[in-house]
């Protein structure tokens, strides 16, 4: 029998270094762009990597696995991913074993093309294949380049392996994909057709998160309020009602709602359950009926206004936010003014506004003349200026008031932390030498209002509702 190759190796090391087993990468880095669905997909992938013994790392240069979880909703985001891939592939010169994977919506959109375009890319993993990361890595380690895209019927969804450390709220996907056909939007192509998770499975995951100590739960879906139980006659209002009754749930949110699918029973839930946060993100996209028609949104501004009025009646303290696209093909100055009017009337607590960006395979580019980029930029700036003033005014009303906030991270300056009010406003507050754990609730007094955030001091009242198992106060490692 030949002597062992290296007699000085520790027994553990020799086990790991078994000649037939390839060296296992030890550290991972995931860069995430885009929506909350992507954030959650990142947590799902991180969980699978950690199960394989990999640990997160802050600097991609030292990683053994780099994943780019991409967004393709606008062209800019897509370009960014390719430029990042160009940067990361250079790390392979130093680290031969480095594996690079393109994930998220650009992965689904590009598929094989991405492998051809970037020679050092090892695999492409679409959003509906996130649960297969482990198997894909196995294939990659055996020397293959892999494309895992598309929308299989049976998909792995293991919620108990999701890596939730460093996050302050428990996110729960309830519906994936989108069946709408908005003429500007690429999401139905990249995230596929709607698939709803069953009622019991969703509630099971929410209970699991409450047991872990989360006090805030966010239900997620591209059209979250279009959720229906796949087997029984239960809709999103039933799900909200059931979730809000779960003991220990202090804050329930959901994202993103589609205006046309918002029923009066859903509105009523805001009145019935105080722990449903008085906040709703309700993308309107435009204040012009002609533009909405060409966007294929399926509602008119009048119906949207009525919906807002009924929400305010049900929950007078409700804060609203929205998405707006400026410069949709053929949008006239008058149509843009109608958007400004709506924004001034609703007085949103925040808006996400974007210049229209043509997306492959969508109908919008054929529906009107492209708006000049300089005109679209000017419209966007005008919109932001009006909104900024509205936000400052709305925030000013809160000065002197006590608010309960959920601690979301460390602040920019030593001795400060950040948090969110129940209506989702960002609060920077002084914590001194004793920072609160992420994901716990505390009371603060608002001292100062800025357009995009509030400054606060701890309230003298004792902090309330601290979660059962506070998690670490360090900032999330996964970005
Ligand atoms: N151009 C600009 N903005 C877009 N959005 C979606 N598609 C596009 C596009 N092609 C915006 C919408 C949507 C948000 C997530 O992104 O406002 O609600």
Q: Specify the CATH homologous superfamily of one domain.
A: Methylthiotransferase, N-terminal domain
- CATH architectural type of one domain: 3-Layer(aba) Sandwich
Shape: globular
Bound molecules: 5'-deoxyadenosine
- In the sheet with the most strands, the strands line up as 2-1-3-4-5-6
CATH class label of one domain: Alpha Beta
Question: Which percent range fits the helix content?
Answer: 25-40%
- CATH fold title of one domain: Rossmann fold
**Class based on secondary structure composition and strand pairing:** alpha/beta
Largest sheet: 6 strands, parallel
Low-confidence stretches: 1-15, 461-479
Q: Please state the CA-atom Rg, rounded to the nearest Å.
A: 24 Å
- Helical element count? 14
Task: Determine the mean pLDDT.
Answer: 91
Walkthrough of the structure:
- It is built from 14 helices and 19 strands.
- The protein has 479 residues and is α/β, with parallel strands linked by helices.
- A 6-stranded parallel β-sheet has the order 2-1-3-4-5-6, with helices on both faces.
- Helices cover 32% and strands 20% of the residues.
- Among the domains are: 27-148, Methylthiotransferase, N-terminal domain (Rossmann fold, 3-Layer(aba) Sandwich); 402-458, OB fold (Dihydrolipoamide Acetyltransferase, E2P).
- The chain is globular and about 60 Å long.
- It has helices at residues 11-16, 36-51, 75-89, 105-110, 112-117, 133-141, 187-191, 199-212, 236-244, 264-272, 289-295, 301-314, 333-346, 373-396; strands spanning 27-32, 55-56, 65-70, 99-104, 123-125, 146-148, 170-173, 175-176, 195-196, 216-220, 251-255, 279-281, 319-326, 350-355, 402-410, 416-420, 426-430, 441-449, 454-458.
- It binds 5'-deoxyadenosine (5AD).
- Residues 73-74, 184-185, 283, 285, 323, 325, 354, 356-357, 359 line the site of 5'-deoxyadenosine.
């Amino acid at each position: 029998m030949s002597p062992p190759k290296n007699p000085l190796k520790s027994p553990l090391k020799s086990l790991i270094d078994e000649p037939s087993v390839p060296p296992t990468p030890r550290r991972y880095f995931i860069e995430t762009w885009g929506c909350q669905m992507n954030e959650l997909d990142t947590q799902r992938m991180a969980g699978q990597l950690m199960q394989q013994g990999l640990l997160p790392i802050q600097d991609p240069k030292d990683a053994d696995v780099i994943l780019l979880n991409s967004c393709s909703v606008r062209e800019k985001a897509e370009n960014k991913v390719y430029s990042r891939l160009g940067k990361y592939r250079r790390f392979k010169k130093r680290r031969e074993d480095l594996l690079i994977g393109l994930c998220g919506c650009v992965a689904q959109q590009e598929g094989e093309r991405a492998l051809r375009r970037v020679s050092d890319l090892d695999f492409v993993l679409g959003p509906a294949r996130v649960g297969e990361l482990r198997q894909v890595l196995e294939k990659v380690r055996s020397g293959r380049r892999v494309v895992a895209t598309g929308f299989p019927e049976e998909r792995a969804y293991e919620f108990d392996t999701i890596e939730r450390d460093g996050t302050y709220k428990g996110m729960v996907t309830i519906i994936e994909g989108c069946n709408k056909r908005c003429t500007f939007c690429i999401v139905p192509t990249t995230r596929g057709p709607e698939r709803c998770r069953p009622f019991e499975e969703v509630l099971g995951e929410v209970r699991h998160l409450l047991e872990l100590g989360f006090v805030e739960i966010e239900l997620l879906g591209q059209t979250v309020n279009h959720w229906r139980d796949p087997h029984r006659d239960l809709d999103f209002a039933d799900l909200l009602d059931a979730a809000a009754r779960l003991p220990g749930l202090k804050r329930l949110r959901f994202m993103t709602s589609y205006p046309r699918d918002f029923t009066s029973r859903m509105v009523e839930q805001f009145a019935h359950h105080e722990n449903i946060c008085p906040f709703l993100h309700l993308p309107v996209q435009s204040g012009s009926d002609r533009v909405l028609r060409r966007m294929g949104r399926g509602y008119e501004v009048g119906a949207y206004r009525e919906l807002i009025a009924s929400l305010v009646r049900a929950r007078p303290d409700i804060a609203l936010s929205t998405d707006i696209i400026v410069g949709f093909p053929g949008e006239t100055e008058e149509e843009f003014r109608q958007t400004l009017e709506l924004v001034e009337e609703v007085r949103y607590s925040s808006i996400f506004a974007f210049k229209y960006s043509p997306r492959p395979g969508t109908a919008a580019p054929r529906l009107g003349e492209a708006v000049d980029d300089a005109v679209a930029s000017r419209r966007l700036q005008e919109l932001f200026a009006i909104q900024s003033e509205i936000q400052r005014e709305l925030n000013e009303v809160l000065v002197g008031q006590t608010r309960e906030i959920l601690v979301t991270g460390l602040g920019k300056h030593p001795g400060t932390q950040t948090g969110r009010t129940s209506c989702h406003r960002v609060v920077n507050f002084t914590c001194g030498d004793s920072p609160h754990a992420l994901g716990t609730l505390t009371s603060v007094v608002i001292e100062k209002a800025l357009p995009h955030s509030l400054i606060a001091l701890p309230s003298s009242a004792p902090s309330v509702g601290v979660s059962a198992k506070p998690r670490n106060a360090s900032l999330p490692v996964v970005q």
